[in-house]
Every structure is written in structure tokens, then in C-alpha cells.
Design brief:
Blueprint (H helix, E strand, L loop, with lengths): L2 H14 L5 H41 L1 H25 L9 H25 L3 H24 L1 H29 L6 H15 L9 H4 L4 H7 L6 H9 L32 H19 L13 H26 L2
Helix pairs in contact: 1-2, 3-4, 3-11, 3-12, 4-5, 4-11, 5-6, 5-9, 5-10, 5-11, 6-7, 11-12
């Protein structure tokens, strides 16, 4: 591929110095190649972007009915969350309530992540979307554990976040010099180390969920909230996150391939399951948030809007699955 370029570089060097080295030929050829690439870079990438935009348009057109339903579900969940937030913030005791605060933030994260998943699906990356769904699933398990165990579990969940922050500070100080970065001061490190010690009491295995369920690992926690039927899908999503070996044919993006290929880009296949899984998870997290303290008679909260929103949301979950499946079956 580069024979002519290497030959030209060698001839030029030979004219200047008969005692040239092979390394100097490589350096000269690389310089010429980089210069040439830079000159044509904008034109080349414009073509790449045009092809990407063309794929995006066609993919949206093919799965349009599914994307409309999934976008609508997300917008409904956002509206429902804002409606409930507006209501409970009028009651002073909920302004700093740990349980409702955790669920509110989890719901916001879920809406954002769903947006990321939609972006990946529209862009033709269903397996990346499934990998992102894994986070939603973990959030569902977390929310259901906290809902089952109550406000004290929410408090410990917040504490667990502080412990992770403290460990992040420690890790940054360990790696900052090698990465050429400024890091936290000794005073900062002492503060976070003391914070971690106060929370964990020196127990290196301390975990927020273990305090209430006896478990800390996701496989046990999902059993605790009866979501272990999703274990296969979770494992499949995990393979797309970790550096694991598996055949290309196993990818959602290869589900319509007629021959074995090395998929290294976009695909308009295999969107149904990642989309439907996402809809189910977002609905579950939204439901937990909208029904916070619903079992308490003196909560002071009116759940009329929440109940109506959940009816709409649950209907959308069904429609998302049906819409994507109808496109898939229309091949």
C-alpha cells in the first residue's frame, strides 16, 4: 500500500545523504503521508458524515413508528416526573427527604440514559444501546430494593455514594502524577478518608444494600426484588461492555445478515429488544418515583396525576414493543 511512498522517500534521502537509515525513510514517508492526509481530511470526512446522515435518515424512516412511540414514552415520563416534583416540593418536609430525593435523581438519570439509548438506536448501534440498558436495569434493581427496604436504605445509598467519592479521590491521587494532572490536596484527602471511615467503620466490605438485604452483588439483589428472570439479558448486555470474545453473529446488529461479516459500524437490524427493554426499565423507575410514600395515609401527597400518568406510560410500554416488532416482522 505504501511501497511507492517509501520508494520516493528513500530516493530523496539518498540524494542528500547516501548513509541514510531505514528509520529516516519511515520518518520521511510518515511526514509526507500525514501532510497528504491533512490536505484531504476535510473532504474525506465530509463524505463520511454525508453517509452517516443518509443512514440515520433511512434508519429513522424504517423504524419510525417505533421511534415515535419510544420518544413519546420518554417525554411522558419526563412530564410525569416534573409534575410530581412540582407537587412534593410544595410540602416542606419533602424538600430534604432522602427517599424521595434518591428516587427523583434516579428518575432524572433514567430519562437521560433513555435519551442516550434512543440516540444509539437511531444511529444504528443496537448492541451499544443494550449495553446502556444494562445501567437502567441496575437502576431498576436499586430503586426496587430501596422501595422495599425504606428510607434508611436510601440514606445508606447516599452514604455509599460518598464512600465511592472518597475512593475516587484516593485513586486520583495515586494516578495523577503518571497522568500529568493536578490532584487533591493532602487536606482534601484527609477529609474524604475520615468521611469514608466514619461511614464504613473501617469495614472494607461495607455496602449500602448489605445492611438491609444481606447482599451486595447484583445477581443476589435482583433475586431479592424478583427480577432474576432478566439475568440472561443482563449477561448479554455485559458482554458488550467488557472485553469478551464472541462471534459477530451473536450481535443484535447482525440479526438480519445473510452472511458472516465483521460488523465495525452501523446496522439497521436488531432494534426491537433493546428498545422494548428500555421502555420497560424507564417505566419501572418512573413508577417507583411517582408512587413514593403512596402506602402512607398521611403523606400529604395527591397521587391522582401519578396514577393517570402511569396508565399512559404502561400503555406506551406495550405500544413500543408492538411497534418495533411490527417493523421487524415486515421484512
Amino acid at each position: 500500500m505504501f511501497e511507492e511512498l517509501l520508494k520516493t522517500s528513500e530516493e530523496k534521502l539518498r540524494e542528500k545523504n547516501p548513509d541514510f537509515s531505514y528509520e529516516s525513510v519511515i520518518e520521511s514517508a510518515a511526514s509526507l503521508l500525514i501532510e497528504s492526509i491533512n490536505e484531504r481530511e476535510e473532504e474525506n470526512i465530509k463524505q463520511v458524515m454525508l453517509e452517516h446522515d443518509a443512514f440515520l435518515q433511512k434508519n429513522r424512516e424504517r423504524w419510525s413508528i417505533g421511534f415515535i412511540k419510544l420518544h413519546s414514552l420518554r417525554e411522558t415520563c419526563l412530564q410525569a416526573g416534573m409534575n410530581f416534583q412540582e407537587q412534593f416540593l410544595k410540602i416542606q418536609r419533602y424538600e430534604t427527604d432522602e427517599l424521595i430525593g434518591v428516587f427523583m435523581r434516579q428518575h432524572a438519570h433514567a430519562c437521560r440514559i433513555t435519551g442516550e439509548i434512543i440516540h444509539l438506536l437511531e444511529g444504528g448501534y443496537p448492541d451499544a444501546a443494550l449495553a446502556r440498558w444494562r445501567t437502567l436495569y441496575e437502576m431498576v434493581v436499586t430503586c426496587l430494593v430501596i422501595k422495599k427496604c425504606g428510607r434508611e436504605a436510601a440514606i445508606d445509598y447516599i452514604k455509599h455514594g460518598l464512600v465511592q467519592t472518597a475512593e475516587g479521590v484516593e485513586e486520583h491521587r495515586n494516578t495523577a502524577e503518571a497522568m500529568g494532572q493536578e490532584t487533591f490536596t493532602d487536606q482534601d484527602a484527609e477529609f474524604f478518608a475520615e468521611l469514608k471511615l466514619n461511614i464504613t467503620k473501617g469495614d472494607s466490605s461495607w455496602h449500602w444494600a448489605r445492611e438491609h438485604t444481606g447482599y451486595k452483588k447484583i445477581d443476589k439483589l435482583r433475586e431479592f426484588v424478583e427480577l432474576d428472570k432478566w439475568s440472561h439479558n443482563y449477561k448479554l448486555a455485559s458482554r458488550n461492555i467488557h472485553s469478551d470474545y464472541y462471534e459477530m453473529r451473536a450481535l443484535y446488529g447482525m440479526s438480519e445478515a445473510q452472511q458472516d461479516l465483521l460488523l465495525c459500524g452501523q446496522s439497521n437490524s436488531g432494534l426491537t429488544e433493546p428498545a422494548h427493554f428500555t421502555a420497560i426499565a424507564l417505566a419501572q423507575i418512573t413508577s417507583v418515583f411517582l408512587t413514593t410514600y403512596i402506602e402512607e395515609k398521611d403523606s400529604g401527597l395527591d397521587y391522582s396525576d401519578s396514577v393517570l400518568f402511569l396508565k399512559i406510560i404502561n400503555n406506551y410500554v406495550k405500544e413500543v414493543g408492538e411497534a418495533f416488532l411490527s417493523v421487524e416482522k415486515a421484512i
